[in-house]
Design brief:
mainly alpha; single chain; 5% strand; 4 strands
């Protein structure tokens, strides 16, 4: 589909030939990089298993733990944290060339990249540090729960991960995201008044309204809301305000309010918990299988983290099915949110806003139906427009 040079009839009325070709070129560049990266990951995985890299790293972290802390192999959680940090650093470092190419070649070529090399590496080291700190805490808690709760650990893991999710939802926008972006209250004016009136109209408990400097890194645009109960906040990307007019911003926010009104976030959280149940229930069936460990040269011990790492490869066929269901449900929610915005009288501005954002972001306006059915969490543009116009 990305190689086509003639616009399909369905999009000719609102997509110029130049915009169509630019979007296809952007999609082709991203797809090419993804293919190369996927091939690299496959080769890397093959090498890791063929040459027993995982057992070597596990043994190396055990020696480091013993020499620095004086701990023996009975301190499995500590060794698992060291293993996690080591492999995370290695994976992050090997992905740098692909990230650099994607950001400073592809995104730059198509007019999206706004960040400097210094900002990129600043973000890289911040992300690495946060992953090390919070990832180690969550991993330690998870392994402790599994160790302490017996063969039905999956029930307790669900409770633990639910608590982690709620803590993450709470602290991420308040403490973590400000480490990367600047949030400023939306200034008084016509746009703020219109958004506040919209929130009042649908009984949305809006407490704060922010603009985030998304243009600091990219020309892509977005808007989202967060917060629990009566403490809701809306965040607009400065690029969104620049690319759309007042009515279109309100229409897009009405769409987001539709997600809130119909409890889509809650539904997806519940789906996520069911997914975790499936993952860890199936893991409980194989975690004690000695052959799974010995086949990959873990002959002297059966660390839980190693078991889970190997199990993820076994789980991939199930994950493919779950991903398909998740994306299908997500697309259904997007249609419902569009319908909600339309019910508030925003049909035309929503349509115009979606077209503008799609063209500004050079999204694929003519995706393959089978590919989008599996990979897309949002419906293709033409399908959304047809639903709005019905």
């Amino acid at each position: 589909m990305l190689h086509k040079i003639n616009r399909p009839k369905a999009i000719k009325s609102f997509v110029s030939l130049q915009s169509f070709l630019e979007a296809n070129a952007y999609g082709l560049d991203k797809s090419s990089l993804k293919i190369v990266q996927s091939l690299y990951e496959q080769i890397k995985t093959t090498i890791v298993f063929q040459f027993d890299i995982l057992p070597w790293i596990w043994q190396a972290t055990g020696k480091i733990m013993e020499s620095i802390f004086g701990y023996g192999p009975e301190y499995e959680i500590t060794q698992s944290v060291l293993f996690f940090v080591s492999t995370s650093v290695m994976s992050s470092l090997t992905n740098i060339p692909f990230d650099l190419y994607g950001t400073f070649v592809i995104e730059e070529k198509h007019g999206f990249n706004k960040q400097s090399i210094g900002l990129y590496f600043g973000d890289f080291f911040k992300t690495l540090a946060l992953t090390g700190v919070f990832g180690s805490l969550v991993l330690s808690g998870l392994l402790w729960v599994i160790k302490m709760t017996g063969t039905r650990f999956y029930l307790y893991v669900m409770v633990f991960m639910m608590a982690v999710q709620f803590i993450g939802i709470t602290i991420y926008p308040t403490f973590i995201q400000p480490l990367f972006n600047k949030f400023t209250p939306l200034e008084e004016g016509e746009l703020r008044t219109a958004i506040e009136e919209l929130a009042t109209r649908v009984d949305f408990p809006l407490k704060k309204l922010y603009v985030v400097d998304g243009s600091k890194r990219s020309g892509h645009s977005n808007a989202y809301m967060y917060g629990f109960f009566k403490n809701k906040r809306i965040v607009l990307f400065d690029t969104l305000i620049k690319q759309t007019n007042l009515e279109e911003v309100c229409a897009i926010l009405a769409h987001e309010l539709g997600h809130w009104k119909m409890s889509h976030v809650v539904k997806m959280l519940i789906f996520g918990q069911l997914q975790l149940f499936v993952i860890f229930y199936l893991f409980s069936l194989v975690v004690a299988q000695r052959k799974m460990y010995s086949d990959f040269n873990f002959t002297t011990s059966q660390p839980i983290l190693i078991g889970f790492t190997l199990y993820q490869y076994l789980y991939q066929p199930v994950d493919s099915l779950v991903t398909f269901i998740f994306n299908k449900l997500s697309r259904k929610h997007e249609f419902e949110a569009d319908a909600y915005s339309k019910s508030l009288g925003y049909a035309k501005p929503l349509r115009d806003g979606l077209i503008k954002l799609h063209l500004e972001n050079k999204g694929n306006v003519n995706p393959d139906p089978l590919y989008s059915a599996y990979h897309y969490s949002h419906p293709p543009l033409v399908e959304r427009l047809n639903a709005i116009e019905q």
